[in-house]
Amino acid sequence: MKRITRILVSIVYLFLLTVGGAFSQEKDAKDCKDHPLISRMNNYYISSCERSFNSFDFFVKEGTKTLEGERTKIEYYLREGSPQPSFLQIRRNYGNAVKNIGGAVLFDDDRRSTFKVTKGGKETWIALEAFNEGRSYELVILEMEPMTQEVTADAMYSALNKDGFMTLYINFDTGKSDIKPESIVIIEQIAALLRAHPELKVSIEGHTDNVGTPQNNKVLSTQRAKSVMNAVVQKGIVATRLTALGWGQEKPIADNRSEEGRAKNRRVEIVKK
Questions:
Q1: Is the dihedral of CA 225, 230, 232, 238 positive or negative?
Q2: Domains along the sequence of the chain with CATH
Protein backbone atom coordinates (compact mmCIF):
# COMPACT_ATOMS: atom_id res chain seq x y z
CA MET A 1 0.00 0.00 0.00
CA LYS A 2 2.81 2.42 0.89
CA ARG A 3 4.53 1.58 -2.40
CA ILE A 4 1.35 2.36 -4.36
CA THR A 5 1.02 5.65 -2.49
CA ARG A 6 4.60 6.60 -3.33
CA ILE A 7 3.99 5.78 -7.01
CA LEU A 8 0.83 7.91 -7.08
CA VAL A 9 2.64 10.82 -5.41
CA SER A 10 5.45 10.55 -7.98
CA ILE A 11 2.96 10.55 -10.86
CA VAL A 12 1.19 13.62 -9.47
CA TYR A 13 4.55 15.37 -8.96
CA LEU A 14 5.64 14.63 -12.54
CA PHE A 15 2.26 15.81 -13.84
CA LEU A 16 2.52 19.10 -11.93
CA LEU A 17 6.11 19.56 -13.05
CA THR A 18 5.14 19.02 -16.69
CA VAL A 19 2.14 21.32 -16.52
CA GLY A 20 4.12 23.94 -14.62
CA GLY A 21 6.94 23.75 -17.16
CA ALA A 22 4.52 24.15 -20.05
CA PHE A 23 2.85 27.08 -18.33
CA SER A 24 6.16 28.84 -17.68
CA GLN A 25 7.17 28.35 -21.29
CA GLU A 26 3.99 30.11 -22.44
CA LYS A 27 4.83 33.33 -20.66
CA ASP A 28 6.33 36.21 -22.62
CA ALA A 29 10.11 35.97 -22.80
CA LYS A 30 11.96 38.16 -20.32
CA ASP A 31 12.03 41.88 -21.19
CA CYS A 32 9.91 41.27 -24.32
CA LYS A 33 6.72 43.13 -25.14
CA ASP A 34 4.62 44.13 -28.15
CA HIS A 35 5.80 46.99 -30.32
CA PRO A 36 3.93 50.25 -29.51
CA LEU A 37 2.77 50.54 -33.12
CA ILE A 38 1.08 47.16 -33.43
CA SER A 39 0.09 44.40 -31.01
CA ARG A 40 -0.22 40.60 -31.13
CA MET A 41 -3.14 38.38 -32.03
CA ASN A 42 -5.16 36.81 -29.23
CA ASN A 43 -3.82 33.64 -27.56
CA TYR A 44 -0.18 34.16 -28.61
CA TYR A 45 2.81 34.71 -26.37
CA ILE A 46 6.26 36.14 -27.17
CA SER A 47 8.94 33.45 -27.35
CA SER A 48 11.82 35.80 -28.19
CA CYS A 49 12.60 39.37 -29.20
CA GLU A 50 15.56 41.53 -30.18
CA ARG A 51 16.15 45.17 -31.06
CA SER A 52 19.11 46.83 -32.77
CA PHE A 53 20.07 49.15 -35.61
CA ASN A 54 20.25 46.81 -38.58
CA SER A 55 19.08 46.10 -42.12
CA PHE A 56 16.32 43.82 -43.38
CA ASP A 57 15.15 42.52 -46.77
CA PHE A 58 11.44 43.24 -47.20
CA PHE A 59 9.36 41.45 -49.81
CA VAL A 60 7.76 43.86 -52.28
CA LYS A 61 6.06 43.35 -55.66
CA GLU A 62 9.32 43.99 -57.53
CA GLY A 63 11.30 41.44 -55.47
CA THR A 64 13.02 42.48 -52.24
CA LYS A 65 13.90 45.86 -50.79
CA THR A 66 16.77 46.27 -48.32
CA LEU A 67 16.27 48.97 -45.71
CA GLU A 68 18.20 50.12 -42.64
CA GLY A 69 16.89 51.45 -39.37
CA GLU A 70 15.98 50.58 -35.79
CA ARG A 71 14.88 46.96 -36.17
CA THR A 72 12.64 45.08 -33.74
CA LYS A 73 12.12 41.34 -34.23
CA ILE A 74 9.38 39.55 -32.25
CA GLU A 75 8.48 35.86 -32.44
CA TYR A 76 5.03 34.74 -31.31
CA TYR A 77 3.77 31.22 -30.45
CA LEU A 78 0.21 30.02 -29.98
CA ARG A 79 -0.76 29.02 -26.45
CA GLU A 80 -1.43 25.33 -25.98
CA GLY A 81 -5.06 24.37 -26.55
CA SER A 82 -6.00 27.66 -28.24
CA PRO A 83 -7.94 27.75 -31.54
CA GLN A 84 -5.44 27.76 -34.38
CA PRO A 85 -5.87 30.55 -36.97
CA SER A 86 -4.94 30.00 -40.60
CA PHE A 87 -2.19 31.83 -42.46
CA LEU A 88 -4.92 33.88 -44.15
CA GLN A 89 -6.47 34.90 -40.81
CA ILE A 90 -3.09 36.08 -39.50
CA ARG A 91 -2.34 38.07 -42.67
CA ARG A 92 -5.79 39.65 -42.79
CA ASN A 93 -5.69 40.48 -39.09
CA TYR A 94 -2.48 42.46 -39.47
CA GLY A 95 -3.48 43.93 -42.80
CA ASN A 96 -6.62 45.40 -41.25
CA ALA A 97 -4.72 46.59 -38.17
CA VAL A 98 -2.17 48.41 -40.34
CA LYS A 99 -4.88 50.02 -42.47
CA ASN A 100 -6.63 51.23 -39.31
CA ILE A 101 -3.53 53.25 -38.35
CA GLY A 102 -3.17 54.73 -41.83
CA GLY A 103 -0.74 52.20 -43.28
CA ALA A 104 -0.73 50.21 -46.51
CA VAL A 105 -0.19 46.62 -47.63
CA LEU A 106 2.77 46.48 -50.05
CA PHE A 107 3.05 42.71 -50.46
CA ASP A 108 0.97 39.66 -49.60
CA ASP A 109 1.40 35.98 -50.49
CA ASP A 110 0.53 32.64 -48.89
CA ARG A 111 2.28 33.30 -45.57
CA ARG A 112 4.13 36.62 -45.87
CA SER A 113 3.06 40.25 -45.88
CA THR A 114 4.84 43.60 -45.99
CA PHE A 115 3.26 46.78 -44.62
CA LYS A 116 4.32 50.40 -44.46
CA VAL A 117 3.12 53.11 -42.07
CA THR A 118 4.11 56.77 -42.47
CA LYS A 119 3.52 59.14 -39.55
CA GLY A 120 5.04 62.56 -39.01
CA GLY A 121 7.34 62.07 -41.98
CA LYS A 122 8.77 58.88 -40.45
CA GLU A 123 8.41 55.54 -42.22
CA THR A 124 7.92 52.26 -40.40
CA TRP A 125 8.08 49.00 -42.38
CA ILE A 126 6.60 45.77 -41.02
CA ALA A 127 7.32 42.25 -42.27
CA LEU A 128 5.02 39.41 -41.23
CA GLU A 129 5.81 35.74 -41.77
CA ALA A 130 3.74 32.83 -40.41
CA PHE A 131 4.98 29.28 -39.72
CA ASN A 132 3.76 25.85 -38.59
CA GLU A 133 0.29 26.18 -40.12
CA GLY A 134 -0.28 29.34 -38.07
CA ARG A 135 0.99 28.08 -34.71
CA SER A 136 3.74 30.70 -34.81
CA TYR A 137 4.58 33.89 -36.63
CA GLU A 138 7.25 36.56 -36.69
CA LEU A 139 7.13 40.34 -36.96
CA VAL A 140 10.07 42.49 -38.05
CA ILE A 141 9.40 46.18 -37.49
CA LEU A 142 11.94 48.61 -38.94
CA GLU A 143 11.71 52.29 -38.04
CA MET A 144 13.41 54.56 -40.57
CA GLU A 145 14.60 57.99 -39.52
CA PRO A 146 13.82 60.93 -41.81
CA MET A 147 16.63 61.69 -44.26
CA THR A 148 19.22 63.80 -42.50
CA GLN A 149 22.49 65.30 -43.63
CA GLU A 150 25.69 66.28 -41.92
CA VAL A 151 27.18 69.24 -43.76
CA THR A 152 29.65 71.98 -42.86
CA ALA A 153 30.08 75.56 -44.03
CA ASP A 154 33.42 74.63 -45.59
CA ALA A 155 31.84 71.78 -47.58
CA MET A 156 29.14 74.15 -48.84
CA TYR A 157 31.72 76.73 -49.92
CA SER A 158 33.76 74.11 -51.79
CA ALA A 159 30.64 72.83 -53.58
CA LEU A 160 29.55 76.35 -54.53
CA ASN A 161 32.96 77.11 -56.00
CA LYS A 162 33.16 73.78 -57.82
CA ASP A 163 29.57 73.18 -58.99
CA GLY A 164 27.82 76.48 -58.33
CA PHE A 165 25.27 74.84 -56.01
CA MET A 166 24.91 72.55 -52.99
CA THR A 167 22.07 70.08 -52.42
CA LEU A 168 20.70 70.01 -48.87
CA TYR A 169 18.18 67.69 -47.25
CA ILE A 170 16.25 69.79 -44.77
CA ASN A 171 13.37 68.05 -43.01
CA PHE A 172 9.98 69.77 -42.92
CA ASP A 173 6.65 68.76 -41.45
CA THR A 174 4.68 66.78 -44.04
CA GLY A 175 2.95 69.11 -46.50
CA LYS A 176 4.18 72.17 -44.60
CA SER A 177 7.11 74.59 -44.56
CA ASP A 178 7.94 74.28 -40.84
CA ILE A 179 11.59 73.26 -40.43
CA LYS A 180 12.06 70.30 -38.10
CA PRO A 181 14.42 70.71 -35.12
CA GLU A 182 16.93 68.15 -36.41
CA SER A 183 17.59 70.36 -39.47
CA ILE A 184 18.39 73.56 -37.57
CA VAL A 185 22.06 72.54 -37.62
CA ILE A 186 22.01 72.91 -41.43
CA ILE A 187 20.52 76.39 -41.11
CA GLU A 188 23.32 77.29 -38.71
CA GLN A 189 25.93 76.07 -41.22
CA ILE A 190 24.39 78.15 -44.03
CA ALA A 191 24.60 81.21 -41.78
CA ALA A 192 28.20 80.33 -40.85
CA LEU A 193 29.05 80.07 -44.55
CA LEU A 194 27.64 83.53 -45.27
CA ARG A 195 29.33 85.07 -42.23
CA ALA A 196 32.69 83.64 -43.29
CA HIS A 197 32.30 84.95 -46.85
CA PRO A 198 30.59 88.37 -46.71
CA GLU A 199 30.86 88.85 -50.48
CA LEU A 200 28.78 85.71 -51.15
CA LYS A 201 25.13 85.91 -52.26
CA VAL A 202 22.97 82.84 -52.77
CA SER A 203 19.59 81.76 -54.03
CA ILE A 204 17.74 79.27 -51.83
CA GLU A 205 15.68 77.00 -54.07
CA GLY A 206 13.07 74.45 -53.04
CA HIS A 207 12.19 71.21 -54.86
CA THR A 208 9.54 68.53 -54.28
CA ASP A 209 8.70 65.05 -55.53
CA ASN A 210 5.75 64.49 -57.87
CA VAL A 211 3.20 63.54 -55.19
CA GLY A 212 0.31 66.02 -55.41
CA THR A 213 -0.46 68.53 -58.13
CA PRO A 214 2.25 70.57 -59.90
CA GLN A 215 0.58 73.80 -58.74
CA ASN A 216 0.53 72.79 -55.06
CA ASN A 217 4.10 71.51 -55.23
CA LYS A 218 5.24 74.81 -56.72
CA VAL A 219 3.63 76.71 -53.85
CA LEU A 220 5.00 74.30 -51.23
CA SER A 221 8.56 74.46 -52.57
CA THR A 222 8.43 78.26 -52.61
CA GLN A 223 7.16 78.36 -49.04
CA ARG A 224 9.92 76.01 -47.91
CA ALA A 225 12.61 78.06 -49.66
CA LYS A 226 11.29 81.21 -47.97
CA SER A 227 11.19 79.40 -44.63
CA VAL A 228 14.87 78.51 -44.96
CA MET A 229 15.74 82.05 -46.05
CA ASN A 230 13.89 83.57 -43.10
CA ALA A 231 15.60 81.14 -40.69
CA VAL A 232 19.02 82.17 -42.04
CA VAL A 233 18.11 85.88 -41.71
CA GLN A 234 17.17 85.21 -38.08
CA LYS A 235 20.76 84.02 -37.58
CA GLY A 236 21.98 87.54 -38.40
CA ILE A 237 22.45 87.42 -42.19
CA VAL A 238 21.30 90.46 -44.17
CA ALA A 239 18.23 89.58 -46.24
CA THR A 240 19.52 91.33 -49.38
CA ARG A 241 22.15 88.61 -49.77
CA LEU A 242 19.45 85.96 -50.16
CA THR A 243 16.62 85.16 -52.55
CA ALA A 244 14.07 82.33 -52.38
CA LEU A 245 12.70 80.36 -55.32
CA GLY A 246 10.47 77.30 -55.64
CA TRP A 247 10.68 74.85 -58.54
CA GLY A 248 8.13 72.33 -57.33
CA GLN A 249 8.50 69.00 -59.15
CA GLU A 250 10.05 70.50 -62.30
CA LYS A 251 13.67 69.45 -61.70
CA PRO A 252 13.87 65.89 -60.29
CA ILE A 253 17.31 64.39 -59.70
CA ALA A 254 16.03 60.83 -59.09
CA ASP A 255 13.25 58.47 -60.15
CA ASN A 256 9.92 59.48 -58.59
CA ARG A 257 8.61 55.93 -58.97
CA SER A 258 10.47 54.80 -55.83
CA GLU A 259 10.36 56.16 -52.29
CA GLU A 260 14.14 56.55 -52.30
CA GLY A 261 13.91 58.64 -55.46
CA ARG A 262 11.12 60.80 -54.10
CA ALA A 263 13.11 61.38 -50.89
CA LYS A 264 16.08 62.62 -52.94
CA ASN A 265 13.84 64.94 -54.94
CA ARG A 266 12.47 66.57 -51.78
CA ARG A 267 15.41 68.89 -51.32
CA VAL A 268 16.65 72.45 -50.94
CA GLU A 269 19.55 73.79 -53.00
CA ILE A 270 21.69 76.80 -52.32
CA VAL A 271 22.88 78.33 -55.59
CA LYS A 272 25.73 80.78 -55.97
CA LYS A 273 24.68 84.07 -57.55
A1: positive
A2: 23-144 (no CATH), 153-272 (3.30.1330.60)
